[in-house]
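Ops channel
N.P.: pipeline sanity check, posting one input/output pair.
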């Protein structure tokens, strides 16, 4: 099934972005850099979650 690969891809992307957000909390970047990266990661996260919701069945 073609959807299975796509769903796995999006789930992996989401978990990587969530891991990046977690690592960002413990990084020694300045406040502005953290804020910029957090904004980018949040946008990516919402994009991939929406793509995942577009599939008919997601577990």
């Amino acid at each position: 099934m073609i959807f299975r690969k796509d769903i796995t891809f999006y789930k992996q992307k989401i978990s990587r972005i969530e891991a990046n957000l977690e690592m960002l909390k413990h990084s020694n970047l300045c406040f502005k850099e953290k804020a910029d990266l957090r904004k980018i990661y949040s946008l990516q996260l919402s994009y991939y979650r929406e793509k995942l919701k577009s599939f008919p069945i997601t577990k």
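N.P.: looks fine end to end. The chain is about 80% helix and 0% strand.
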